[in-house]
Design brief:
The chain is of the alpha+beta class and 239 residues long. The chain has 2 domains: 165 residues, GAF domain (Beta-Lactamase), CATH 3.30.450.40; 70 residues. Helices cover 55% and strands 15% of the residues. The chain is built from 9 helices and 5 strands. It has a 5-stranded antiparallel β-sheet, sandwiched between helices. Strand 1 and strand 2 form a beta hairpin. Helix 3 runs antiparallel to helix 5. The longest helix has 26 residues. The radius of gyration is 17 Å and the shape is globular.
Amino acid sequence: MMDADLLVATFVDLADTMVADFDVIDFLHMLTSRSVELLAVSAAGVVLADPRGELRVAAASSEAAGLVELFQIQNDQGPCLECFRTAGPVAAADLNRPDQRWPRFAEAAARAGFRSVHALPMRLRHDVIGALNLFGSVPGPFGPEDLRVGQALADVATIGLLQERSVRRSETAAEQLQVALTSRVIIEQATGKLAERLSIDMERAFGMLRDYARGSNQRLTDVARNFVDSAAADFPPPR
């Protein structure tokens, strides 16, 4: 049964984008992690269009999901690409079926432990900025309630991103997306550096960086950049 209190808290958090220290990457990671907590899925990812309209991986709840998202983009096939291009939801309820529309993607997803994918558009009217992709470890279609909630999460997140850009009119929509994509590269570098230094996995390293940023009231991107640029590379990174 879906956690009603968490659902309400999630919508409130996704709508609260007008704070001074709004962090796009942390916002998108919250979207993917809450999607996993609320819905019957094992992982989630977000892809966003860059200024040229090309999709980029912006966030993922697990390393495996991020790699599968990247595989779709690099091979130009998969439900998230179709979702973005058609501006409609796309379901692959059973990736083991022999009549796959995306055979290379289905094989890569299966190797990563996923058996189903549901891609939901991040759109406001005719403006599509990306897709929220939900990965299941077992085959099967989404229930109507999960589909409604998943699409609502994608819609609220889209409105939040567009609203935040509107408030800060000095940045265009394309520039804001580019900032998000650039920030993700920096955060990935810091995560990899910390994971290697402490001999831990990427997900735990990312969690440590994010927890430190929140605990010290800093932007996640700033913490990551300081850590990458630090000569000593100690953790916690210097303020």
